[in-house]
Amino acid sequence: MEIKYEYTRKRSEFGRPCSFSDFLAEVTADIQPDPSLADNFIPQDPVDFAVQEGPVMALHEVNTERAQVSVRGVNHVEGGWPKHIDPKNSELTTRYREEVEREEVYTKTVQRLGSLVEHYIRQNNAIDIYEEYFEEEEDEEEEEEEHPSAKTINVLRDPNKIRRMCTHLSWHPDANRAVAVAYCSLDFQDSRKDMTFDSYVWDLGKPYTPELTLKPSSPVVILEYNSKDWYHMLGGCYNGQIVYWDTRKGGLPTETTAVEFSHRDPVYGACWLPSRTGTECLSCSTDGQILWWDIRKLSQPSERLILDITREDQLKKALGATSLDFVPIMPTKFLVGTEQGIIVSCNRDAKTPPEKIANIFSSHIGAVYTVTRNPFFPKVFLSVGDWTARIWTEELMDSSSIMETKNHTAYLMDACWSPVKPAVFFTVRSDGILDVWDFLFHQKEPSLTVKVSNDPLLSVRSQDNGQIIGCGTKMGNVSLLQISPGLCTLRKNEKNLTSTMFEREARREKVLQEKYRERQLREQERLRAQPEEENPQEVFKQAQEDFFSNIKAEQRRRGMDVPGEDKESQPAAQLENQEEE
Predict the structure, then answer these.
(1) Which residues are 391's β-sheet partners?
(2) Helix (H) or strand (E) segment spanning residue 335
(3) φ, ψ for residue 400 (rounded to 5)?
(4) Best label site of 141, 176, 219, 346, fewest CB within 10 Å?
(5) pLDDT at residue 29, rounded to an integer
(6) Residues 281-298: pLDDT tens digits?
(7) What is the dihedral of CA 117, 119, 123, 124, to 10 degrees?
(8) Which is nearest to 494 in space by CA: 399, 426, 420, 386?
(9) Is the CA virtual torsion 350, 329, 241, 315 positive or negative?
(10) Which of 33-37, 348-352, 501-505, 523-527 has the highest mean pLDDT?
């Protein structure tokens, strides 16, 4: 509490001090009532009267002492371990626990604390003061009255004078308290002077200045936090190098890959892989290579895959990768979107490189800017390219998408699923509009359309709770939008309804695919049943003769003179008809 004004008063201004003493009551005056005034008396009912023994003052000489308040932060990760015990070493921590549990002091302490905890647990279980008796009715009323909405709560601006594109966002795994933003100019041969290579980590509690400045040797196209070790951050650079930072050591890169062993084009996709050490990662680029790395040894990649769909493993035939998706639920599979409009499903466990390219989806006309799996149904994934966003399933390998949005007038640049609602996803467009789609309610129109900026939106990411959406623009601004609770709250039976919808659309697409195959087979059989090709000249002569013979036959039927024929050559019946007419 901060006191802005303080009023003081001298002791001499308090007045004469009061001296109280005990003595018996005495009558000072006895005035008898006047009977003549009783007729004018009117009793009042009810009677309210207040008596204050002292004057009312804004400030009083009796004040509490001012408390000195200070704000202190504690970064508590894991404590209670001696200095010789490494908390990350499971063997040492398990051995130390066993030693402590065998001590007599530990047993007595647990017994003493157990009785206290049991007492308070029984008190809590006696009655639930937070119990809501009409929760279901309130939820129904809210659902009926609620409308989809979104509002901008903050804007993070690039602190540099020369504005660059916000190419990628990554939320901090610890309760999304910060967001890492990759800034890079993707314009070919951008020759603006004094352009910095820095990218930033923004703390949402202090949005006016970056919390940490990352200083790579080349502009960063993509940034990703490590979900296992929060202090490690992976970056893919415009010159093809892979960089990683330890944020505890500052903004300078901890290690960078060698140029000769890195990608030849900008790194458009990078992600961390689940492993025991938490140090493995994956990257892709438009040079047609997929590279596996270990940040403990970034001198050269641990594994390489050439994205050649002809399965000849030739780099000159490889497709350029523009997007990458990997989920820990499927540790051996990942999806790659290419600039040729094809989505490639890869399997790392295959024995040979050609076998690692498991399946191919011909998805879009142009480059696939984003491909991402559904967090609830990993076999269903979303892709964005050209003017549409499409939903696919790996259960149908050779078919088209099971669902898709309408064709927009502006390009779709990025998309992401909602982490809390299985049928909701977000798309951003080059005209600065954010669309929120909920396929359970509308499949032809978005549930919510928000004009975020006049500049094109290039990237979008949602927090883990689905409440705040970050949108990055071409001019380096990151708009943070808070959406309404109806778009970020999982309703009853919503997951089952979404699963049923995906299965229904997959069956429909399968039926259409079978009908298309049947039609192709019938067409092939019809072509096989046709005779050998005839001479076009002969066919034309035959058609001409048939045409003129039909005309002559019609003329004879009507009794008209046929050019080139005599009446003698005509049949007798026709001559009689002509004479009668």
Answers:
(1) 382, 403
(2) strand 333-338
(3) -85, -175
(4) 141
(5) 86
(6) 999 999 888 999 988 888
(7) 20
(8) 420
(9) positive
(10) 501-505
Helix (H) or strand (E) holding 390: strand 388-393
Q: Are 348 and 356 in contact (CB under 8 A)?
A: yes
pLDDT confidence tier of residue 100, bands split at 50, 70 and 90: confident
Taking domain 145-500, whether its CATH number is 2.130.10.10 is answered by yes
DSSP one-letter code for 113: H
The tokens describing 290, both together, are 């997929």
Q: Which two tokens stand for residue 526?
A: 């019809």
Is it true that the peptide bond before 456 is cis, omega within 30 degrees of 0?
no
The CA distance from 88 to 92, in Å, is 9
Sheet containing 220-225: give its strands across.
220-225, 232-237, 242-246, 255-256
Q: How far apart are CA 428 and CA 465, in angstroms?
A: 20
Which amino acid would we find at residue 403? M
Contact between 362 and 319 (Cβ < 8 Å): no
**Strand ranges across the sheet with 289-294:** 267-272, 280-285, 289-294, 303-306
Cis bond before residue 419 (omega within 30° of 0): no
Residue 514 clears pLDDT 90, i.e. is over it: no
Assign 180 a pLDDT band (cuts: 50, 70, 90): very high
Copy the structure tokens of residue 181: 């933003």
Distance CA 420, CA 466 (A): 6
Statement: residue 470 has pLDDT above 90: yes
> CA torsion 49→54→59→61, rounded to 10°?
-150
The pLDDT of residue 567 is above 60:
no
pLDDT digits (tens, 9 = 90+) for 318-358: 888 999 998 888 888 889 999 888 888 888 888 787 788 88
Q: How far apart are CA 556 and CA 570, in angstroms?
A: 9
Residue pair 428/457 in contact (Cβ under 8 Å)? The answer is yes
**Amino acid, res. 412:** L
Contact 87, 81 (CB under 8 A): yes
Q: How far is CA 96 from CA 86, 445, 551, in A?
A: 10, 59, 110
Spell out a b/e string for 286-301, using b for 16 or more CB atoms within 10 Å of the CB, else e. Answer: bbbbbbebbbeebeeb
What is 483-494 written as a DSSP string?
EPGGGSSPPTTH
Return the closest-CA partner of residue 298 out of 249, 357, 237, 349.
Answer: 237
| Domain extent listing, the chain | 145-500, 543-573
Q: What residue type is assigned to position 539 of the chain?
A: V
Q: Collapse the DSSP code of 566 into the 3-class scheme (helix H, G, I; strand E, B; otherwise coil) and give the result.
A: coil
SS3 assignment, position 381: strand
- Residue 206 DSSP one-character state: B
| HEC-encoded secondary structure of 68-104 | CCCCCCCCCCCCCCCCCCCCCCHHHHHHHHHHHHCCH
331 vs 504 pLDDT, higher one: 504
Nearest to 426 by CA among 377, 475, 379, 481: 481
**pLDDT band at residue 533 using 50, 70 and 90 as cut-offs:** low
Task: Convert 284-303 into a string of H (helix), E (strand) and C (coil).
Answer: EECCCEEEEEECCECCCCCE
